[in-house]
UniProtKB/TrEMBL annotation:
Listed cofactors: [4Fe-4S] cluster
Iron is among the record's keywords: yes
Pfam families listed in its UniProt record: Radical_SAM (PF04055), TRAM (PF01938), UPF0004 (PF00919)
Name recorded for this polypeptide: tRNA-t(6)A37 methylthiotransferase
Spans through the membrane: 556-576
């Protein structure tokens, strides 16, 4: 069946249709058929039964290069996919040239990110690399021409990445784009206890929910992530506890809108945060993700108390996008500028020193010069230390793409003007001479410093002393730049070690049970998991879905139905290929 290599299998059900004869039917229809046994040649007999066919492909031994674009939610998905592949036996490499397969995890927020994604696909194909696509671009628009014939793993199907990679390596094209549901209710996504490889072993990124409640006219991410679906509090707390047991000292909470957390499951963000705070050891920190103004307004008092907690960064990312109410209405942002100011003013009063980060879109359709000047005044008033400036790009399929566009030259000039305003002030000059407590978690891009953050999540560069990594120390601030400060550790200060265990090595797989760690890989049976289905490694193998250890729960019925389907396929192949005498 060579045509199978060119077909696109949406799922196991695509292999056998309802009209195909069942094994039982074939048994009685062909009861008078007698097989004629072929004699093997001497050459064939020299191959032992244990030898695989010479043209076989054995998945689980190849090298995979993973590239992720976009937000921390996307980065978390990439870490989970890397962990599952490594746990199965694949080698995750940083060298794209030596990789057998490229896993490209995309972002659909802006045109440039998708352009990079598209160019990477072309480069992979030119280099004869196998390709698997992930992230928001193929999830939102899987039928785009440049995605034709390529395997896709949906944003809610990342726990099945091993299956998709296996079949792609065999030459099949597989697409899994469905939603995860429980009794008809949409779930947050794949399980949180999957194996993962943290990009930084000291930082755990936890997605608390997926999707959102808004319908912003410019947003393409909504098409991929969908409506709000939250993870239960107990699962999130368990994930945090497991992370600390693996040497993590900083947790980032992420989602498309953290402020909306829990509205679909009868809880809310403050309730989750208080539970998480109880699990944070001394010397570790929690950073909150982006929240839109409408949902944080309801919880201002509680949020202020949480942001004042010594183990929570006094930091919040609240996108305003524009300071013009008419533009916000066209964006369908569901708040006005006064709402944004109320949130910021309240938190600045109740959480002294808090860092407020925000986003602004320049040149949204219909934005006038007066609208833009209102935005400039807002930035001048609050002098945000962290400001993400985005020139508007119309994303295909969004309402904003059909609106009357601002000329490109005007958008570019407004972006330039706002950038100049942002760089006209230095938010940290007044902090030179301060003594600050900082948590050291990573290395600077130029490799000259270690990067730490103070209680307001402001970046502080410290000397590259390996003793400091993963520790909370006190420093004297002696220099300030636009985006950072520099600090010298205080010799007589106490050093806090948050980790209750040594951090995992870079590239080490997180979340593996002892049982899983000792299980053989690469196509052999998983010890301790007698019900696990591992694909037969032959030159021809219809798509046989894996049952990995993290996929065991509640899968008995599915295994039975899949097994029956596969039996039908094998019977067809057997009778169709044999020479018979009637």
């Amino acid at each position: 069946m060579p045509a199978a290599c060119d077909s696109v299998l949406e799922d196991i059900e695509d292999i056998v249709s309802a009209q195909d004869p069942k094994p039982h039917d074939r048994q009685f229809v062909r009861k008078n058929v007698f097989p004629k046994v072929r004699k093997r040649s001497s050459q064939q007999n020299t191959q032992t039964d244990d030898d695989p066919p010479s043209d076989s492909i054995i998945p689980g031994v190849q090298k995979i290069w993973i590239r992720t674009w976009g937000c921390s939610h996307n980065n978390s998905d990439g870490e989970y996919m890397a962990g599952q592949l490594a746990a199965y036996g694949y080698k995750i490499t940083d060298n794209s040239a030596e990789a057998d397969l490229w896993l490209l995890n995309s972002c659909t927020v802006k045109n440039p990110a998708e352009d990079h994604f598209r160019n990477s696909i072309k480069k992979a194909q030119e280099g004869n690399k196998k390709v698997v696509l992930a992230g928001c671009v193929p999830q939102a628009q899987p039928r785009q021409d440049y995605l034709k014939g390529l395997s896709i793993i949906g944003v809610q199907q990342i726990d099945r990445v091993v299956e998709v990679v296996e079949e792609t390596i065999k030459g099949h094209s597989v697409r899994l784009l469905g939603q995860k549901k429980d009794n008809g209710k949409r779930l947050g996504g794949a399980r949180l206890d999957l194996p993962k490889i943290r990009k930084n072993p000291l930082i755990e990124i936890i997605s608390i929910n997926t999707g959102c409640l808004n319908a912003c006219t410019y947003c393409k991410t909504k098409h991929a992530r969908g409506d709000l679906a939250s993870y239960p509090i107990e699962e999130l707390v368990d994930r945090a506890k497991q992370s600390f047991q693996e040497g993590v000292c900083e947790i980032w909470l992420t989602s498309e809108d953290t402020g909306a957390y829990g509205r679909d499951i009868g809880t809310d963000l403050p309730t989750l945060l208080w539970k998480l705070v109880e699990a944070i050891p001394e010397g570790a920190m929690l950073r909150l993700g982006m929240t839109n103004p409408p949902y944080i307004l309801e919880h201002l008092e509680e949020m202020a108390k949480i942001l004042n907690h010594p183990r929570v960064y006094a930091f919040l990312h609240i996108p305003v996008q524009s300071a013009s109410d008419s533009v916000l209405m066209d964006m369908k942002r569901e708040y006005c500028v006064a709402d944004f100011k109320r949130v910021v003013d309240f938190l600045k009063e109740k959480v002294p020193g808090i860092t407020i980060a925000t986003d602004i879109i320049c040149g949204f359709p219909g934005e006038t010069d007066e609208d833009f000047q209102e935005t400039m005044k807002l930035v001048e008033q609050y002098r945000f230390p962290s400001l993400f400036i985005n020139q508007f790009y119309p994303r295909p399929g969004t309402p904003a793409a059909k609106m009357h566009q601002v000329p490109a030259a005007v958008k570019k000039q407004r972006t330039k003007d706002l950038s100049q305003l942002f760089h006209s002030y230095n938010p940290y000059d007044h902090k030179v001479g301060e003594r600050q407590r900082v948590l050291v978690t990573e290395e600077s891009f130029d490799s000259n410093y270690y990067v730490a953050h103070n209680p307001f999540y402001e970046q502080v560069l410290v000397p590259k002393d390996p003793v400091l990594m993963g520790k909370m120390v006190e420093v004297n601030i002696y220099e300030a730049g636009k985006h950072f400060m520099k600090g010298q550790p205080v010799s007589d200060a106490r050093v806090y070690t948050a980790s209750i265990t040594r951090p995992l090595a870079k590239g080490e797989v997180s979340g593996l049970t002892k049982e899983f760690r000792h299980a053989p890989r690469n196509g052999t049976n998983w010890k301790g998991h007698p019900s696990a289905e591992i694909p037969v490694k032959t030159s021809f193998s219809p798509w046989m879905p894996l049952q990995l250890p993290w996929q065991q729960e509640g899968s008995g019925l599915k295994i039975l139905s899949v097994s029956l389907a596969l039996l039908a396929v094998l019977v067809m192949l057997y009778y169709g290929g044999m020479k018979t005498e009637l």
